[in-house]
């Protein structure tokens, strides 16, 4: 653990790929086309959410093995949400992670089912991975927390509000509520799952990680709004300029681009400040917050 | 428990409605339109799957309280699957439970999100309902079994094969594989969840209930194929004659209507025979098998 977290990105991404290989049926399993499409949709991506889970685990002194199921489940939920969000009836996007979206590469019905089955599998992984060393009561709480974050009072609720809000100018409070649900809840859950995997911890540590998660979650979405304006589709691997095309309210549209950048920077800084309680052990999450802050896609 | 099971249908349906009222956010909860649509989609229906869970619980001597979460979760998965199956990209149906389908009553994006959130909530219910008296390890197994039945190797896989098979003539073996996945897995899971809620039981009892579940599951889908031909849309509360319109292989189309009826009757009989091991305690599941066998919708 003495090497900087940056050196462990590749091994952690490999662990995640191994988890997906283990928990997704092979592309030969009946029904083959569906399983092939599930693997297609799951390929690539920044894997930021699993990295947050693993980094939080390091801060809490957990072995990576204790976090594999949570990291995999979080990413499966994330991938399913991308597949459904890209559907014609939703954001109607043809490009994701630099490749055709699932409903373009396959068809719309398959994309709906791919998302459905990836969500199911996320809960299966936490329920069935009994080599994590985490006791059953904690794993149930992890499932409950993941479901809260992913469901109608979290991510899916945020997506519903996002679609309802197209063409309407939101207040800053409305926009923040939208972002906190749509993106923030799942990023916050990364930290919460790691905390639950660690069992009993001092409330101040739990609160510090939760504050970090809330700040990073909102900052991440403000950044997304900024990147949608400032980056190209080629750099993003998805369609740029979408928010304006869909008449979406964003932090830059509501408060102006410079103020949005200041707000994101403040949130990243607040996230880092909350980690002081962990002193040197905080390095993985400190590094990751800077890594996220510096991203260009 | 001495009154016949028929007298407990209404109380059990009420328990289920109470569970939905408890576990679905109110129609005023943010985002209100999504939660209203989730409640719209969840209204009505035969509630056969929850009744199977409760009936199996009675046969095993469990209090209804131990089965509320499983019954609710199974029905939430079922409702989500209907909402998604009815989408234009899937079976494209405008009528369900005698009312406009969710994407007709609301819109397509909302229907996708309603299904997504109902699935999430199903897992949340089992994870969060800690008043069931069932220990955490068993509840994890229940979540794993539900996920297996609902996922790509169960219900969603069956739906994928069903869509791929339109316009193609299936062999009887292919058709049975489709039905066992699409409808059978979730009905079998009703029995499996009740068995898990009961904790350790003699293997012969576990196997008897599993056999009952497998037979009822396949018989139910064969019946659906028959009803699609013989019933009217008004009686079904959903569009009749869909299979022929979609060029779907069905038991009647593959083996002929009379042979399909014989096959269904054999399966119902085989389901009942497996219950002999429970002697008089088998009444709820015996009654329910006859009730299902006699249904006209």
UniProtKB/TrEMBL annotation, chains A, B:
<dbReference type="GO" id="GO:0004659">
    <property type="term" value="F:prenyltransferase activity"/>
</dbReference>
<protein>
    <submittedName>
        <fullName>Geranyl transferase</fullName>
    </submittedName>
</protein>
<comment type="similarity">
    <text>Belongs to the FPP/GGPP synthase family.</text>
</comment>
<dbReference type="GO" id="GO:0005737">
    <property type="term" value="C:cytoplasm"/>
</dbReference>
<keyword id="KW-0808">Transferase</keyword>
<dbReference type="GO" id="GO:0046872">
    <property type="term" value="F:metal ion binding"/>
</dbReference>
<keyword id="KW-0460">Magnesium</keyword>
<dbReference type="GO" id="GO:0016114">
    <property type="term" value="P:terpenoid biosynthetic process"/>
</dbReference>
<keyword id="KW-0479">Metal-binding</keyword>
<dbReference type="GO" id="GO:0008654">
    <property type="term" value="P:phospholipid biosynthetic process"/>
</dbReference>
<keyword id="KW-0414">Isoprene biosynthesis</keyword>
<dbReference type="Pfam" id="PF00348">
    <property type="entry name" value="polyprenyl_synt"/>
</dbReference>
<dbReference type="InterPro" id="IPR053378">
    <property type="entry name" value="Prenyl_diphosphate_synthase"/>
</dbReference>
<dbReference type="InterPro" id="IPR000092">
    <property type="entry name" value="Polyprenyl_synt"/>
</dbReference>
<dbReference type="InterPro" id="IPR033749">
    <property type="entry name" value="Polyprenyl_synt_CS"/>
</dbReference>
<dbReference type="InterPro" id="IPR008949">
    <property type="entry name" value="Isoprenoid_synthase_dom_sf"/>
</dbReference>
């Amino acid at each position: 653990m003495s090497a900087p977290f940056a050196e462990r990105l590749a091994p952690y991404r490999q662990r995640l790929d191994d988890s997906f290989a283990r928990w997704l049926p092979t592309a030969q399993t009946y029904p083959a086309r569906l399983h092939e499409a599930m693997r297609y949709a799951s390929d690539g991506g920044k894997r930021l959410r699993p990295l947050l889970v693993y980094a939080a685990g390091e801060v809490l002194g957990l072995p990576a093995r204790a976090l594999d199921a949570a990291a995999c489940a979080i990413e499966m939920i994330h991938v399913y949400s991308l597949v459904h969000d890209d559907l014609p009836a939703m954001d109607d996007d043809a490009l994701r992670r630099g490749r055709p979206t699932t409903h373009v590469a396959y068809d719309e019905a398959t994309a709906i089912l791919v998302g459905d089955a990836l969500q199911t599998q996320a809960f299966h992984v936490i329920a069935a991975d009994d080599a994590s060393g985490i006791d059953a009561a904690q794993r149930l709480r992890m499932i409950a927390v993941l479901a809260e974050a992913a469901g109608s009072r979290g991510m899916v609720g945020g997506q519903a509000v996002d679609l309802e809000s197209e063409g309407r100018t939101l207040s800053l409070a409305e926009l923040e509520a939208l972002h906190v649900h749509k993106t923030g809840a799942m990023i916050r859950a990364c930290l919460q799952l790691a905390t639950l995997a660690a069992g009993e911890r001092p409330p101040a540590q739990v609160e510090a990680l939760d504050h970090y998660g809330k700040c990073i979650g909102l900052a991440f979405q403000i950044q997304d709004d900024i990147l949608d304006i400032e980056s190209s589709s080629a750099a993003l691997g998805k369609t740029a300029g979408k928010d304006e095309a869909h008449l979406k309210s964003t932090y830059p549209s509501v408060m102006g681009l410079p103020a949005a950048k200041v707000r994101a920077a403040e949130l990243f800084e607040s996230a880092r400040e909350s980690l002081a309680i962990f002193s040197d052990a905080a390095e993985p999450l400190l590094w990751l917050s800077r890594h996220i802050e510096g991203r260009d896609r």
